[in-house]
């Protein structure tokens, strides 16, 4: 998406959940304050995950088995935005 020629950078709330979970089990060494700073510094808009997104999982082929990836993919398809 663009607004007045500038790209809108988004991060899925699903990605934030994945980072928090991986941090809590010791797979990542990043804290909440660092995540919040990154969101602010990069001017990211946090994209919510909705029931509509979740319902589209029923129709998503099983090309990816990771549940976080599947949620991000279906969210991007519903919102018509690229995944980077």
Model description:
With 84 residues, the protein is mainly α. The chain has one domain. The chain is 49% helix and 12% strand. The radius of gyration is 14 Å and the shape is flat. It starts with a strand and ends in a 5-residue tail after the last helix. 11% of the residues are buried. The model has no long low-confidence stretch (mean pLDDT 93).
Task: Describe the structure concisely for a colleague.
49% of the residues lie in helices and 12% in strands. It has 84 residues and is mainly α.
Outline the secondary-structure elements.
Layout: E1 2-3, E2 6-7, E3 10-12, H1 13-24, H2 32-41, E4 45-47, H3 51-56, H4 67-79
Parallel strand pairs: 3-4
Antiparallel strand pairs: 1-2
Strand ordering within the main sheet: 1-2
Helix-strand pattern, N to C? EEEHHEHH
Shape: flat
Q: Please identify the structural class as seen in this structure.
A: mainly alpha
Radius of gyration: 14 Å
Strand content: 5-15%
Give the low-confidence spans: none
- Whole-number tally of structural domains: 1
- Taking the alpha carbons of the first and last residues, their distance comes to 13 Å
Number of helices: 4
Largest sheet: 2 strands, antiparallel
**Got a strand count?**
4
Mean of residue pLDDT? 93
Question: Could you list some keywords that capture this structure?
Answer:
flat, 84 residues, 4 helices, two-stranded parallel sheet, mainly alpha, two-stranded antiparallel ribbon, 4 strands
């Amino acid at each position: 998406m663009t607004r007045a020629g500038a790209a809108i950078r988004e991060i899925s709330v699903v990605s934030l959940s994945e980072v928090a979970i991986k941090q809590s089990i010791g797979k990542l060494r990043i804290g909440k304050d660092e995540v919040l700073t990154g969101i602010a510094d990069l001017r990211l808009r946090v994209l919510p995950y909705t029931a509509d997104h979740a319902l589209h999982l029923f129709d998503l082929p099983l090309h990816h088995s990771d549940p976080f990836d599947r949620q991000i993919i279906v969210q991007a398809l519903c919102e018509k935005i690229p995944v980077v």
